[in-house]
TrEMBL record:
Location of the ABC transmembrane type-1 domain: 79-292
Species name: Falsirhodobacter algicola
Cross-referenced PROSITE patterns: ABC_TM1
Superkingdom as given in the UniProt entry: Bacteria
Keywords: Cell membrane, Membrane, Transmembrane, Transmembrane helix, Transport
Name listed for the protein in its UniProt record: ABC transporter permease subunit
CDD domains hit by this protein: TM_PBP2
Membrane-spanning intervals of the chain: 21-46, 82-104, 116-136, 165-190, 211-236, 275-295
């Protein structure tokens, strides 16, 4: 009788050859991803070690571009901004998304309408979102003016021109647009939980909050992992919202890495510095993706 190792060897080639037409159909996409993503990423990393200015050149510069990058106040400010924004956006998106999904999961009336309302901002581009929130936060006709007309003449709320509050403005706009998607993802995860678990928890007299914390959340770990990757990738490449809402100001207080890359590559015509900053962003993305890949595929392989 063949052992498990022998059976695994005999079934593995069959799995590789299963659905050959589907694999052939996926080849163009796979090749495009390999050429565009891996090829262009390698090209960027290579030229980040050169003295490229307006055009790429092969004059090797060692780590000088990276030394200059990490000694530039503007880059350090962009890293600080994206770190603060990233932590707050990640935590608040997950918390708000789960809470809203839990409320929608109570079989409320007009659930489809609420889902549409929550998800609608995600259909807008970040440029539109930035312009909308620029109007909302404008002190001349936005929130500040509306509150003053209501009777509070001394009320002041102008985060777009306050370096200590501008990240809050970015956060409000970002959460307004992105939380709806996380809510829908969480709701799909909640709908996938076996109803018998809820019935057993109610029979045992377990409070609803304990059921969510100790039963539902562990079950939804893959959902949270997927949502975290989506949020993290969006945080790293944050650019158009900043351009539309603050232009990196006041001063450089809302500067982000993607804007730094764009300005150095196209406005300042310093490709080497832009490539070095791009490489740092690539490293940040890999730091986000690798743990998720290990959890997802490592868990499946163990299973």
């Amino acid at each position: 009788m063949p052992n498990a190792h022998t059976r695994l060897k005999t079934t593995r080639p069959r799995n590789v050859l299963r659905n050959p037409m589907a694999k052939i159909a996926a080849l163009p996409m796979i090749l495009t991803a390999l050429v565009v993503f891996i090829g262009c990423s390698g090209w960027t990393v290579y030229y980040s070690f050169t003295k490229s200015r307006m055009l790429p050149n092969g004059d090797f510069a060692g780590l000088s571009q990276y030394e200059r990058l990490w000694s530039t106040p503007r880059w350090m400010q962009s890293v600080e901004t994206i770190a603060i924004y990233g932590v707050l956006a990640l935590v608040l998106s997950l918390v708000l998304g789960f809470v809203l999904a839990a409320l929608l999961d109570q079989k409320i009336r007009m659930e489809s309408l609420f889902r549409t309302i929550f998800l609608y901002p995600y259909a807008l581009s970040f440029i539109v979102t930035g312009l909308v929130w620029q109007w909302i936060l404008n002190p001349d006709f936005g929130i500040q003016e509306m509150v003053r007309r209501a009777g509070w003449d001394t009320f002041a709320f102008d985060p777009l021109h306050n370096s200590s509050l501008v990240i809050g403005a970015l956060l409000m706009a970002g959460l307004w647009q992105g939380t709806g998607l996380i809510t829908v993802i969480m709701l799909a995860g909640l709908r996938g939980v076996d109803e018998d678990l809820w019935k057993a928890a109610r029979v045992d007299g377990i409070p609803a909050w304990k059921t969510y914390v100790f039963i539902i959340l562990p079950i939804m770990r893959p959902v949270f992992a997927t949502a975290t990757v989506l949020i993290g990738a969006g945080i790293v490449k944050l650019y158009d919202l900043v351009v539309a809402l603050t232009q990196g100001g006041p001063g450089i207080s809302s500067e982000v890495p993607a804007k730094y890359v764009y300005d150095y590559m196209f406005a300042n015509q310093n490709l080497g510095q832009g490539f070095a900053a791009s490489t740092m962003m690539l490293v940040a993305v890999l730091i986000i993706l690798l743990p998720w890949a290990i959890i997802e595929f490592g868990g499946k392989r163990r299973g």
